[in-house]
Structure formats: structure tokens, C-alpha cells
UniProtKB/TrEMBL annotation, chains A, B:
SUPFAM superfamilies for the chain: Metallo-hydrolase/oxidoreductase (SSF56281)
Gene3D superfamilies: Ribonuclease Z/Hydroxyacylglutathione hydrolase-like
Active site: D67
Binding partners and assembly: Homodimer.
Organism: Porphyromonas pasteri
Reactions performed catalytically: Endonucleolytic cleavage of RNA, removing extra 3' nucleotides from tRNA precursor, generating 3' termini of tRNAs. A 3'-hydroxy group is left at the tRNA terminus and a 5'-phosphoryl group is left at the trailer molecule
A Pfam family reported for this protein in Swiss-Prot or TrEMBL: Lactamase_B_2
Protein name, per record: Ribonuclease Z
NCBIfam families: PRK00055.1-3, RNase_Z
Length: 304, 304
């Protein structure tokens, strides 16, 4: 079990304000950083939060509205200047390829690394990224343009060795790796000792779901079942429900209802409309339904 | 004579730092704002400095390196959200059309106003914009990509009416406008009274020259003759002269030499390399040659 945390780089929406940067986050999992959305100023915020550009293994864009992707050209360009050589995969819904094409073409001669564009499925939930420790699954959202959330789920964690029990059955050290991965052990006499008797269960795998931007979408519930932390946009207060519907956004109350229905452990709201200088009313509206809610703010770090 | 001032939105260079934003400025002339370069975060800085997006009459881009133009998509997009309907002209060297094409195409259906792209001549000095009160002239610079500076020059200001003299010669009030513009007056007896006897000269027209990015370019001297304020990039200290040459940038000393040779009134330096956390040494290097130098900083307002 290594580090698993979310860094909020920006949690505002389209109109620039002095309170917030447009949407951008970093999911940190052990030694890897995953950039999730990349509004204008994301690279500045990365630097401010002392996150090492060299640890970025991928970028995940939810949709192509400017407040979620206009920081991408700058970030990609800076990574080149900082000497990146490793391929960088960028994930996003239909249109991400067209959005990146001019940058890729223009920078080909000097960028120093390749960008691998992955157009993900924004209509169904499917795995778009996988490595030894995590899978990333798309979450179909409903917005005015193709839009997808992302679910980061740790893989089942290794089991813990029960030393006393292993010594009792004469399990050699060289077999510990197999045990941790769930294998049973066969003694010299041919007796099978089940893994459960030689190990204890590892920690429950943690998960983080990112849902921005979206209209109220109860069908998300089953996809978000039991996640450790859910980020859900809460652009408006309930008194602007009509405006939320019209713009395909959610209210703080709706975000809380999704969290409640899915039975998530914790909720973090963000993507505040520029009209809210103080986010406390949004937080209170959500907490009235789902108490385990916090309001995102630039620089916030959420440990999983 | 109305207001004429320069607002520094950003004076850093390519690598993001906590000290500076990438390059962007606003030239304010009476009721008009001209955006000069538009690095990432320019729209945030406009808001921070309480500059009204609705007063922007044009955008002037020096070249297409990201630290001078990656804030443009966000600014253009926000101007649409704020309800702009008036055509916006954007000036820039070869490539500006290609850079803006994807944005213009993508946003055509919802932006709400037209963007008029003007590819300026980056090889010679020529007028690219003109209105009742100002002309903007390109300044050919030498960089690794087509690059142009801009010279904002007030038009010759109106002459001041000498009331006593006008009354003496019986000049009717209705003729004052013609007098202010320099016309002579003919009396009922057919005698010509020269304008100089009826008016006094108006104030000397003010001018602002923007030169970023460029290698040391002494040929700029005659183009900058007597300007009121010169912004000249000073990316490095003289101890990195080789690096300045290699990257087609200038040292603080070189910026000062250009100011000195052109006989400008004042110099403001900027576009500091990320290696300089403190800009004082750059300022001192320039002041040793040209004492009337200041070092740009975010939020600085330079009155002309």
C-alpha cells in the first residue's frame, strides 16, 4: 500500500475569478502522477504544489470545454523543455485528437517526446488505462459535449504473510511472493495448505471517481458503488436548478444525492460557478444530505 | 490628451515560475485596451488588475512561442461568455492564422462574435493598425521564429486655441475645430492669419515600443528614435551572453544599449529567464548603461 491522494490544482468553472483556477487535478498513486483535466494555469499550480512534472505518466481529459483543457498546450510544452523523453499518453473523448493535432504537428521538431492520443469511449464504462497497481475506467457523463469521468481503482492489494504460520508449515521464503498473490502451499507430504491459513487479507483497494462536468445522472450510482472518494461537480445551489438543467450541470444537492445513492465513503465537490465567491453555502447544501462532504479548494490534498 | 499607460500582466519567459506569469501586457489609450502578447493566465491577470474585457479593441501577438500566446484561446473564449458581439481583430506574424484556425472553427457556433485575423509583415516596419488617436507599427525582430514588435504612437495631438487671439481676429467658434487641426483662418477682408498665431502647439505625442523576443538587434535603433517608453526583453545577464545568442534572446546590457542608441526616454525590461528569482541584478546591469530603466513586474502600471 503506497500513497494514494488527490491534489486539487483548480476547482473553478469557465469564467476566470480571483478565487479559483479552472478545473485541474492530479491523482498521485505511489510514484506516479495522473493529471485529470488541465484548465489554464494547471502547470503553474503543479509547480506551486511542488509536483514533479517528470512523474506524470498520463493525462486524462473529461471534455473539451476550455476550462478543462486550455492548460494542456502549456503543460505539454513545458514537459518538453524540462527534458521529457518518455512517451506521454493523453486520454479524452471524441475530439481530443483534433484538439491536440495542431500542437503535435507544430511541436514535432522540438518537443523531444511523443504524445500518444487515446480517444476513449465516452458512452459506456470501460477500462482505458491499466498498470501493475491501478485501472482507470471511463464513466459516461451527460454534458453539452462528449464528456467522460474517470474511476481510478487500486488493484487488489497483496496479502500479508503470517510468519508464525508459514514457519509452522515449513514454507520457504522463496515462496512468499506466490503466497502474497494468493497461491496455496503444498507441503513435502503433499498436503495443501490454503493461502488463507498462511496469510491475512491486505487492505481494501482504494478508489477515486472523478465526475465533472455532468447533469444530474442517477445512472452513475452503480458505477460509483463504494468508491473511497467521489469528486462530483456542484456548479450551482439548488435555487438555480433550472440553470443547472439548461447548462447540463449539477447542484450541490444533486452531487450529494449521487454520493448517497452510491454509498461512497466521502464526497468532494467543486466546479463552482463564478457567481459564488463563498463556497460555504454549496458545502452546507451538500452536507445536509451527505455529511461526509468537503468543498474543494486550490492546494487541497485529499488522502485516500 | 487622455490616458496612455502600459499594464504588465506577465513578464516571465517559457518555464513557469512562482515569481512571474508568461508574457502579456495591456496598452491602455483613452477608452481603449490593446492586448500585447497573451501568455497563459493573461485573462486571470486582466481580471486581477480590474481591466474591463469589454474595452479590448485588438490583440497583438509578437510570435507563436507558447509563453506569448497560450492564453489566447482562454481569453477569446471568455470574451464570448462575457457577451462580446463586436468583431475582434487579432494581429500576429505568419502562423497566427494557422494557430487560431482550430479555435475559430470549433467556436464558430457559440462564440457570439467574429475574430478577424491579420497576418502582419514581420520583415519590415509598417503600419498594421490605425484609428483616430493611434497608429500601431510593426517592428521586425530577430528570433527563432517569425517575430514582430509593435510601436504604439499617438497621432499628432490637437493644437490649443488661443482665445484672446481668436477674438482679436474675429474667428467664429464654429471654426475652432479646423484651427485645432492646423487650418489657417481667412478674415472677411481676405487676410490670411496663420494657425500658429491663433493656437499653441499641443503636447508632444507619446509612444510605446514593445520588443520581445529578440536577439540583440542594433538596427532597431532608428525605428525606436525618441520613443517615450521602450519595453525590451532582457532574458539573461551578460555572463550568459553565449546562451542569449544561442537562443536569440538579449541580455540586460544589450537591452540598455538599444535604449541608449535610440535615445528613448525610459526603458522597462522583462522576459526574465526562470533562473533569476531576483531581478535586481538584471536591473542593475541595465541601469549601469541606461539609468532610466525599470524592471517589469506583474501588476506594474507604467504611465506615459
Amino acid at each position: 500500500m503506497g500513497d494514494f491522494r488527490v491534489h486539487i490544482l483548480g476547482c473553478g468553472s469557465a469564467l476566470p475569478t480571483m478565487q479559483h483556477y479552472p478545473t485541474a487535478q492530479v491523482v498521485e498513486l505511489r510514484d506516479k502522477l495522473f493529471v485529470v483535466d488541465c484548465g489554464e494555469g494547471a502547470q503553474r499550480q503543479l509547480r506551486r504544489q511542488r509536483l514533479d512534472f517528470g512523474r506524470i505518466v498520463g493525462v486524462f481529459i473529461s471534455h473539451l470545454h476550455g476550462d478543462h483543457c486550455y492548460g494542456l498546450y502549456g503543460l505539454l510544452s513545458t514537459m518538453g523543455m524540462l527534458g521529457r523523453r518518455r512517451v506521454l499518453p493523453v486520454y479524452g473523448p471524441r475530439g481530443i485528437d483534433k484538439f491536440l493535432a495542431p500542437f503535435i504537428e507544430e511541436s514535432r521538431s522540438y518537443l523531444g517526446y511523443d504524445i500518444e492520443v487515446h480517444v476513449v469511449d465516452d458512452r459506456t464504462s470501460s477500462v482505458c488505462y491499466e498498470d501493475r497497481s491501478v485501472t482507470v475506467t471511463t464513466l459516461p457523463l451527460e454534458h453539452r459535449t462528449p464528456c467522460t469521468g474517470y474511476l481510478f481503482r487500486e488493484k487488489v492489494t497483496e496479502r500479508h504473510i503470517d510468519r508464525a504460520s508459514c514457519d509452522f508449515y515449513g514454507v520457504p521464503r522463496s515462496y512468499y511472493t506466490a503466497l502474497r498473490e494468493g497461491a496455496d502451499f503444498t507441503t513435502d507430504e503433499g498436503k495443501v495448505i490454503p493461502c488463507e491459513r498462511l496469510t491475512r487479507q491486505g487492505k481494501t483497494p482504494r478508489s477515486y471517481a472523478y465526475c465533472s462536468d455532468t447533469a444530474y445522472l442517477p445512472s452513475l450510482g452503480p458505477l460509483l458503488r463504494d468508491v473511497s472518494l467521489l469528486y462530483h461537480e456542484a456548479t450551482f445551489l439548488s435555487d438555480r436548478l433550472a440553470r443547472a438543467k439548461e447548462t447540463a450541470h449539477s447542484t450541490a444537492e444533486q452531487a450529494a444525492r449521487i454520493a448517497q445513492a452510491a454509498g461512497v465513503e466521502r464526497l468532494v465537490i467543486g466546479h463552482y460557478s463564478a457567481r459564488y465567491i463563498d463556497t460555504q453555502p454549496l458545502l452546507e447544501e451538500a452536507q445536509a444530505i451527505f455529511p461526509e462532504t468537503v468543498a474543494a479548494d486550490e492546494g487541497m490534498i485529499l488522502e485516500l
